[in-house]
Amino acid sequence: MREILIGIFASMFFAVTFILNRSMELAGGSWIWSSSLRFMFMIPFLFLIVLARKNIKQVLLEIKKHPFQWVCWSFVGFVLFYAPLTFAASYGPGWLVAGSWQLTIVAGTLLGPLFFHTVQTKEGTISVRNTLQLKSFLISLVILLGVGLIQLQKASQLSFHELVLGVLPVLIASVAYPLGNRKMMEVCGGRLDTFQRVFGMTLVSLPFWFILSGFGIFSVGLPSSEQILQSFIVAICSGVIATTLFFIATDCSKNHQGKLAAVEATQSTQVIFVIIGETLLLSSPLPKGWTFIGLLLIIIGMLLHSYFTHKNHSQSDMKILGKKLNSEAPIKG
């Protein structure tokens, strides 16, 4: 339950991304600067946090130990996640991008069988492939249905061109983010904490953002002061606070696929926060009709995820306690 609450809190800060990216686009800012500036602003704050905790050296040693994996999965988890997301904001409103982004819920569940977890046996520690969590997958589909209903009201007002360019890049991002995150957890093997991992991934991805910003200088020119300020806010709220909170929640759940799916499903609440934010800040009209049913389905799906995660966790604790009591029982005879 605690991890789910952290995930919901993170999604509130993630919502800032969709609202301000759309705001920057409406003001004439380029998606190139919206994406690259966020990570450039993130690095000093993450550096100071990790430096204050005296953990810099360990991060650099881990990167030196597995440079290819760090570059590859940081590119997937950060560059292939955020560049398509900001690009999509150029062609669709924040609610459409945030709604399409919820495909990451299903993607995260389907990615489970690609990974292994360790099991302690009498012969020693062995790696076992994760199985598809069917219950989590079905609950995620309920949430996804809710998101679809939210978009139904306004999707009919968009052209085919806006739908394709506003949704297709988000599909790429929705797979890249959980894949890169989980692969980096696997590479780190518990040796780095959340702040170290986020700092390392941001540091390794910087060359890609410098290349993109260089392209931006020649293609669209330098960013405006307003876009720089809004990118700075996104970097703090979404890049530092939300990403760290979300990674903390996934780190705590990494050995339990059902719980991990529930944490990833908390991102669905971003849609609610984006609708509220766009209504208040960008004067977007309030949703109505099927949208409210969609919101209800999202809430029901989140409650189901929370209930079954808590139930499974309690049953697991009871099994462990039962084994412990049996092992400590005196032998008669």
Automatic annotation (TrEMBL):
The keyword Membrane applies. Coiled coil: none annotated. Keywords: Membrane, Transmembrane, Transmembrane helix. The chain crosses the membrane at residues 5-24, 30-50, 70-89, 95-116, 136-152, 158-177, 198-222, 228-248, 260-283, 289-308. InterPro entries: EmrE. It holds the Pfam family EmrE. This is Multidrug resistance efflux transporter family protein.
